[in-house]
Amino acid sequence: MKALAIFAGVFFLGxxxxxxxxxxxxNEPLVGDELTPAAVAAINKGLEYLARSQARDGSFGGYxxxxxxxxxxxxxxxxxxxxxxxxxxxxxxxxxxxEKTIDWMxxxxxxxxxxxxxxxxHGVMYxxxxxxxxxxxxxxxxxxxxxxxKLQQAMRLIAQTQLDSGGWWYQPDRNPGQTSDIxxxxxxxxxxxAARNVGINVPQKTVDKAIDCVKRAxxxxxxxxxxxxxxxxxxxxxxxFPRSAAGLCILYGLGQYEAKETKAGLKFxxxxxxxxxxxxxxxxxxxxxxxxxxxxQAMYQAGxxxxxxxxxxxxxxxxxxxxxxxxxxxxxxxxxxxxMACIILCIPYNYxxxxxx
Amino acid sequence: xxxxxxxxxxxxxxxxxxxxxxxxxxxWRMGTGxxxxxxxxxxxxxxxxxxxxxxxxxGSVSTYLFGVARSAWLExxxxxxxxxGLEGSPRxxxxxxxxxxxxxxxxxxxxxxxxxxxxxxxxxxxxxxxTAGGLKYREIAELLGIPVGTVKSRMAAAEERLRERLSGYLxx
Lengths: 357, 172
Prior knowledge:
The complex is a heterodimer.
Chain A: H1 2-12, H2 37-53, H3 72-84, H4 95-107, H5 124-142, H6 145-160, E1 180-181, H7 182-197, H8 204-216, E2 227-228, H9 241-253, H10 260-270, H11 288-302, H12 304-321, H13 333-345
Helix pairs in contact in A: 2-13, 3-4, 3-5, 3-13, 5-6, 5-7, 6-7, 7-8, 7-9, 9-10, 9-11, 11-12, 11-13
Chain B: H1 2-5, H2 9-29, H3 34-50, H4 61-78, H5 99-118, H6 121-131, H7 137-144, H8 148-165, H9 167-170
Helix pairs in contact in B: 2-3, 2-6, 3-4, 4-7, 6-8, 7-8
């Protein structure tokens, strides 16, 4: 049923049916200008880099190459990059890489349901959120019951660690009065949304509290602030492109199409077209991949002229930034950057369940 | 617990291996459905980890842990997710019994489950903590904030009621 929904979505968008992942499409663009030969070549080279970088146990290395060993967030992002091209266990050029990623993910973490690598990082809830998102997408594309059980445990942890301020912090530890970090919050909420999309029961009150938290982060200029206090207080402190892209993406993802915060966020993001300067200029401090990962999804969901203006800009910018070995570097290091870039470039394939409008 | 309080994941794993089956048994005796046992066990360990800074090193680990478990159970009840009358008790691994034995086991499980569910909560609480939790009367008294004498009398009352209810099965 889910596979049918995916292909129905593809037809609705007017895209031709994508062929099996990894098949050589020659030099024909997929649809118009959306996936040019250069973009397809960049994706293929990027996924080859990831396949070479994957550890034997299926994991990918620490964020930023910090030598901390396997990182569940980076592994989740790289796993999603393979899925985004349509690779699943038993199908596609990178089927085995997906299988290995799933195997590692099913063994990672601890008895609370927290997903993390062997050494927990400072931002372990980031690891959890991205890893859980990968599990949701993988479950959506495979219906594997083993993935479902791990995913349910992951969702339970998210629900049980929600703060009074409505969101989440870097660690799951209880800390009364803790403000929510908007980026960690959106990371968990994306996972909740993805899990719900693939049939996992997610408490509505958890989602409602998260939506309220994100909305209270909205700033007068349409962007989103960093830390959110307990309700009903609004967050202050100003906007920045990466977290504002994330805020807009999750509001779209949770169906808040008509919310004033969504409309203002869309205007804000239009001022941050890739490679036009402003805040979306790349470099480590700019969290380029993070911002454009969410921003591109948000514009894809918004559709129309928002998408037709954004997509060529980010596609061109990413192709320009790819290294000779197929990787993308910047914040997060080769694995993270390459995974994010490939996910972004693969959005028009519309394979990932989270992209369903 | 000291290691857990310091943030040790191996310590969490050791506690899980030692206590998870007892916790599942406790929750089952408190009327939790079989399909929710894993969730409540997970909830208990989430709480244990989240509140690890609260551990003061006083009292036994069992008392502390079952106190956390009881909180998780109470919260699950207030959320309206409690399911009673499951078929049979939580099972470990092992061979699948022949069909007639399986039917008998399921029927007994339903009876036990029903008998436990019909116990007034104060009695069920004490009974579950003592049997599944393996807590001593002194520990139960500390956890529930009641005198040891009250624990003993509630335990006796629970056993009496269960004996009456299940006498037909006990005689077989």
